[in-house]
Specification:
It contains 11 helices and 18 strands. It is α+β, with helices and mostly antiparallel strands.
């Protein structure tokens, strides 16, 4: 038999809902959830291995959407005869080919599946086996005993992708809800604007703008190392920490202590090799100061218009290590310069942003970089506060044009 070369079309059968297949009624049709193998199994009456191949050919002819027929031998289903294989080999010497029995052309399954198996758990093994033995269907049993039907590998992969997309949609909704709940600034005595866009459905950027106690406010931008789901999971730990702050009395806890507490909290959770950069601005209107902590994050930019009318820019570079390594508290107490104390003056603006902002590229591959970032915040300084978020969005969309975002972007603008 001539060896078939496996190419990109190996799993390319139509994945549309089967409507023209003669399926058996088993009584179990509605007893599986969408994550179980039984939900995508086709219950088809097996054909004897001794039957003429004409029997299968007729079934394929009468049922255009049927991709395989289960074959039975000695009261057990041993495998399938697949449409693609029959069609390819019947094109020449049809009479000789058709005179054979089904057992001569059965594709035996190396193992069976249970209709109660979960698709995510068996997918890797099924795909690896399908490629190795060149099969597109697996036999499915009920309770690992009785024959239930056959499962298409292509249908399994389609369902797996569908489940993953649904999970990502749910995760994205949860993440956006976390961000919304942690950024209620309606009652702040100053203005905070923020804009966020994830490069993927879920991402590793996180921001917060909350009143932590009477007369004290915390605004922060964070960036988790890594991308997608693994990074998004770590943003949940940030959310849990700041949610915890709201249910305890923070009036006697200094900003330094809160930052150190966050690092110690994350040290126990963040895996070795991962870290979280962050820029936190703690505002205390009673002392008319803002304490800025830059923990391995992008530069924080403070803008204030001078007497000449020209914007003066202060660049607050990282002076503290990233969160999650347990080194922030030690640095804060080392005596080295680690915190920026910024006097609050009318017209002062403090800008926090993740590195996705400076790293975004246009169609020519040009980075936005630090120069364009500083120029943008000058422009933002002179815009109305109510249009700040739309101004940020326009700057991003105008620059990236048709390019994809290489990383999550968060921009926060604080105005006094």
């Amino acid at each position: 038999m001539e060896e078939e070369v496996i190419d990109s079309s190996f799993f390319s059968e139509s994945l549309e809902e089967k409507k023209l297949i003669d399926l058996q009624k088993t009584g179990f049709e509605n007893s599986f959830n969408e994550r179980q193998v039984g939900s995508i199994t086709m219950s088809i009456e097996p054909v004897s291995s001794r039957a003429s191949l004409d029997t299968v050919l007729k079934m394929f002819d009468e049922q255009p959407d049927l991709t395989a027929v289960p074959i039975e031998k000695d009261d057990a289903v041993i495998g399938v005869v697949e449409r693609d294989f029959v069609t390819k080999n019947s094109s020449s010497g049809f009479k000789i080919f058709a005179s054979k029995t089904c057992g001569d052309y059965v594709k035996e399954c190396p193992y069976t599946l249970n209709c109660r198996d979960f698709i995510e758990k068996i997918a890797t093994k099924v795909n690896e086996t399908a490629i190795r033995v060149e099969t597109k269907h697996f036999v499915v049993l009920i309770n690992n005993r009785s024959f239930y039907g056959i499962m298409s590998v292509a249908k399994m992969n389609e369902k797996l992708e569908e489940l993953r997309l649904h999970d990502l949609e749910k995760a994205a909704a949860i993440q956006q809800n976390m961000l919304k709940n942690n950024s209620d600034t309606k009652n702040f005595p100053f203005k905070v604007s923020f804009w966020n866009k994830m490069a993927n459905p879920v991402g590793g950027d996180y921001y917060i703008a909350r009143q932590i106690c009477k007369g004290r406010y915390m605004i922060g931008s964070f960036d988790v190392s890594g991308k997608n789901v693994s990074a998004a999971l770590l943003t949940v730990t940030l959310c849990s920490f700041f949610s915890m702050l709201t249910i305890q009395d923070c009036s006697k806890i200094s900003a330094n202590q809160i930052v150190a507490m966050l690092d110690n909290f994350l040290k126990e959770i963040v895996p070795v090799g991962n870290f979280i950069t962050g820029a936190i601005c703690c505002v205390n209107p009673s002392t008319n100061t803002a304490s800025v902590f830059n923990c391995g994050h992008t530069n924080v930019l403070a803008y204030l218009k001078g007497e000449s009318g020209k914007c003066r820019i202060a660049t607050l570079e990282p002076t503290l290590p990233p969160f999650g390594m347990g080194a922030v508290a030690e640095t804060l107490t080392s005596g080295k310069k680690s915190t920026y104390i910024v006097p609050i003056k009318p017209g002062l603006q403090i800008n926090l942003y993740s590195d996705g902002f400076t790293d975004m590229q246009n169609d020519e591959g040009e980075r936005y970089d630090d120069f364009h970032t500083k120029e943008f915040f000058v422009k933002l300084y002179n815009t109305d506060a109510n249009s700040a978020e739309s101004t940020i969005e326009k700057a991003v969309t105008d620059w990236i044009q048709h390019s994809l975002l290489p990383d999550d972007i968060t921009v926060m603008n604080i105005r006094f």
